[in-house]
From TrEMBL:
Coiled-coil annotated residue ranges, if any: none
Gene3D superfamilies: Dimeric alpha+beta barrel (3.30.70.1060)
Domain YCII-related positions: 22-102
Name this protein carries in UniProt: YCII-related domain-containing protein
InterPro entries linked to this entry: Dimeric_a/b-barrel, YCII
Length: 123
Protein backbone atom coordinates (compact mmCIF):
# COMPACT_ATOMS: atom_id res chain seq x y z
CA UNK A 1 0.00 0.00 0.00
CA UNK A 2 1.41 3.36 -1.04
CA UNK A 3 1.25 6.24 1.41
CA UNK A 4 -0.88 9.14 0.27
CA UNK A 5 0.70 12.50 -0.39
CA UNK A 6 -0.30 15.50 1.73
CA UNK A 7 -2.18 16.85 -1.30
CA UNK A 8 -4.18 13.62 -1.63
CA UNK A 9 -5.02 13.63 2.08
CA UNK A 10 -6.01 17.29 2.03
CA UNK A 11 -8.26 16.76 -1.01
CA UNK A 12 -10.61 14.52 1.02
CA UNK A 13 -10.83 16.73 4.12
CA UNK A 14 -13.95 18.68 4.99
CA UNK A 15 -12.40 22.14 4.39
CA UNK A 16 -15.45 23.93 5.80
CA UNK A 17 -14.93 27.59 6.67
CA UNK A 18 -16.44 28.65 9.96
CA UNK A 19 -15.98 31.87 11.92
CA UNK A 20 -14.58 31.95 15.45
CA UNK A 21 -15.53 34.90 17.64
CA UNK A 22 -13.35 35.18 20.73
CA UNK A 23 -14.60 37.59 23.36
CA UNK A 24 -13.04 39.55 26.18
CA UNK A 25 -15.45 40.64 28.88
CA UNK A 26 -15.33 44.19 30.13
CA UNK A 27 -16.93 43.00 33.39
CA UNK A 28 -18.68 46.27 33.90
CA UNK A 29 -22.10 47.01 35.27
CA UNK A 30 -24.82 45.50 33.18
CA UNK A 31 -23.29 42.09 32.39
CA UNK A 32 -25.80 40.25 34.57
CA UNK A 33 -28.67 42.39 33.32
CA UNK A 34 -27.92 41.50 29.68
CA UNK A 35 -27.04 37.84 30.27
CA UNK A 36 -30.59 36.60 29.48
CA UNK A 37 -30.65 38.58 26.21
CA UNK A 38 -27.17 37.27 25.28
CA UNK A 39 -28.20 33.66 25.95
CA UNK A 40 -31.51 34.09 24.08
CA UNK A 41 -29.59 35.49 21.11
CA UNK A 42 -27.26 32.49 21.06
CA UNK A 43 -30.20 30.06 21.35
CA UNK A 44 -31.87 31.84 18.41
CA UNK A 45 -28.67 31.43 16.36
CA UNK A 46 -28.56 27.77 17.35
CA UNK A 47 -32.13 27.27 16.18
CA UNK A 48 -31.64 29.06 12.87
CA UNK A 49 -28.51 27.02 12.15
CA UNK A 50 -25.92 29.78 12.29
CA UNK A 51 -24.41 28.72 15.65
CA UNK A 52 -21.97 25.81 15.51
CA UNK A 53 -20.98 26.04 19.18
CA UNK A 54 -20.39 28.52 21.98
CA UNK A 55 -19.24 28.69 25.57
CA UNK A 56 -16.95 30.28 28.12
CA UNK A 57 -13.15 29.96 28.09
CA UNK A 58 -11.24 29.18 31.27
CA UNK A 59 -7.48 29.66 31.65
CA UNK A 60 -4.95 27.90 33.84
CA UNK A 61 -7.49 25.49 35.33
CA UNK A 62 -9.52 28.36 36.75
CA UNK A 63 -13.20 28.24 37.57
CA UNK A 64 -14.04 31.79 36.48
CA UNK A 65 -14.41 32.40 32.72
CA UNK A 66 -11.81 34.71 31.21
CA UNK A 67 -13.61 35.08 27.90
CA UNK A 68 -15.79 33.25 25.48
CA UNK A 69 -15.73 31.54 22.12
CA UNK A 70 -18.59 31.50 19.63
CA UNK A 71 -18.27 29.54 16.38
CA UNK A 72 -20.71 30.52 13.65
CA UNK A 73 -21.62 29.43 10.16
CA UNK A 74 -21.67 32.42 7.82
CA UNK A 75 -21.31 33.01 4.10
CA UNK A 76 -18.44 35.46 4.54
CA UNK A 77 -16.65 37.71 7.00
CA UNK A 78 -19.25 40.49 6.72
CA UNK A 79 -22.08 38.09 7.62
CA UNK A 80 -20.06 36.67 10.53
CA UNK A 81 -19.31 40.18 11.80
CA UNK A 82 -22.99 41.10 11.59
CA UNK A 83 -23.82 38.09 13.79
CA UNK A 84 -21.15 39.13 16.30
CA UNK A 85 -22.20 42.78 16.30
CA UNK A 86 -25.83 41.82 17.04
CA UNK A 87 -24.92 39.99 20.26
CA UNK A 88 -26.34 42.12 23.10
CA UNK A 89 -23.01 42.01 24.98
CA UNK A 90 -21.15 43.38 21.95
CA UNK A 91 -23.87 45.81 20.88
CA UNK A 92 -23.86 47.36 24.36
CA UNK A 93 -20.07 47.52 24.72
CA UNK A 94 -19.87 44.97 27.54
CA UNK A 95 -17.60 42.68 25.55
CA UNK A 96 -15.09 43.20 22.79
CA UNK A 97 -14.46 40.49 20.23
CA UNK A 98 -11.97 39.28 17.66
CA UNK A 99 -13.14 37.47 14.52
CA UNK A 100 -11.13 34.67 12.88
CA UNK A 101 -11.89 32.47 9.88
CA UNK A 102 -11.36 28.82 10.85
CA UNK A 103 -11.16 25.98 8.37
CA UNK A 104 -12.53 22.75 9.85
CA UNK A 105 -10.63 19.86 8.26
CA UNK A 106 -10.52 16.92 10.66
CA UNK A 107 -12.50 15.67 13.63
CA UNK A 108 -15.54 13.63 14.52
CA UNK A 109 -18.82 13.90 16.35
CA UNK A 110 -20.72 11.08 17.97
CA UNK A 111 -24.49 11.19 18.32
CA UNK A 112 -26.44 8.46 20.12
CA UNK A 113 -30.20 8.38 19.62
CA UNK A 114 -32.12 6.15 22.02
CA UNK A 115 -35.50 5.13 20.65
CA UNK A 116 -36.67 3.63 23.94
CA UNK A 117 -36.80 6.92 25.83
CA UNK A 118 -36.48 9.36 22.91
CA UNK A 119 -33.23 10.91 24.11
CA UNK A 120 -30.12 11.94 22.27
CA UNK A 121 -26.57 12.27 23.53
CA UNK A 122 -23.83 14.18 21.73
CA UNK A 123 -20.35 13.05 22.69
Amino acid sequence: MTAKTPEELYATMLRRSLWVITTRPARGPGMQDLLPAHLEYQIAMERDGSLFGAGPIFEDGGSVPTGGMIIVRAQDEAAARALADADPFHANGLRQYTLHRWMLNEGAMTVTVRYSDQTAVVG
